Amino acid sequence: MMDLHTLLPELVPKAVAWAEVQSERILRCGVSLTPHGIALARGVGVYRPELVRVELVPQLPLPDDPLLQQVALAAGLLGPDMVGLTLGYGIFIVQGHANDRLVSHELRHVHQYETFGSISGFMPVYLAQIAEFGYEAAPLERDAREHEAHAV
Q1: Using CB atoms within 10 A of its CB, is residue 96 exposed (0-12), middle (13-18) or buried (19+)?
Q2: How far apart are alpha carbons 64 and 62 in whole angstroms?
Q3: CA–CA dist 130, 125 (Å, integer)
Q4: Tell me: the pLDDT tens digits for 19-65?
Q5: Within a 10 A sphere around the Cβ of 132, how many other Cβ atoms?
Q6: Dihedral (C-alpha) 144, 31, 25, 59: value to the nearest 10 degrees?
Q7: Can you tell me the distance from the alpha carbon of 152 to that of 146, in angstroms, rounded to the nearest whole number?
Q8: How far is residue 152's CA from residue 142's CA, in Å, rounded to a whole number?
Q9: Which residues pair with 91 in a beta bridge?
Q10: Are the C-beta atoms of residues 79 and 73 closer than 8 Å to each other?
Q11: Contact 71, 35 (CB under 8 A)
């Protein structure tokens, strides 16, 4: 097993660069939130829901960089079981998985990005939490789960 703490100084700049490119793609190709989506966003604290874009994809993209891809898969950040990914104001959702629970979870991550000010502000903190606590127990992930809408 790789030591994620040791790799963070190398990984964070790569992760930020990849996330920024992917976010730009989503902002270009994604769709705005519906009125219901805007209500969900406001309910989880998003300051600027009008900036959010969602792109439905067949699967979440993987980084081209071999080390970044390996770490993302090993840490559970990406992979076949993941169906949502938030990068700034952009959200990828795997086709067939959009529901209020997932969307509200991802929108809470948008709020977190807003709180940290940018992808480059959020990503070092988020990855450090994944390294220290693991994906499921990372405080930012726990916060997102606590803000999931449970209405059907």
Answers
A1: exposed
A2: 6
A3: 9
A4: 999 999 999 999 999 999 999 999 999 999 999 999 999 999 999 99
A5: 12
A6: 60
A7: 17
A8: 21
A9: 54, 86
A10: yes
A11: no
pLDDT interval class at 151 (50, 70, 90):
very low
pTM: predicted TM-score of the whole model, two decimal places: 0.94
Rounded distance, CA 146 to CA 2, Å?
29
Tell me, letter by letter, the H, E, C secondary structure of the chain: CCCHHHHHHHHHHHHHHHHHHHHHHHHHHCEECCHHHHHHHHHCCCCCHHHCEEEEECCCCCCCCHHHHHHHHHCCCCCCCCCEEEECCEEEEECCCCCHHHHHHHHHHHHHHHHHCCHHHHHHHHHHHHHHHCCCCCHHHHHHHHCCCCCC
Structure tokens at 51: 């900036």
Q: Tokens 């990984």 — which residue?
A: 11
Q: Are 50 and 38 in contact (CB under 8 A)?
A: yes
Please give the Cα distance from 122 to 132 (Å, whole number).
16
Map out the domains of the chain as residue ranges: 4-146
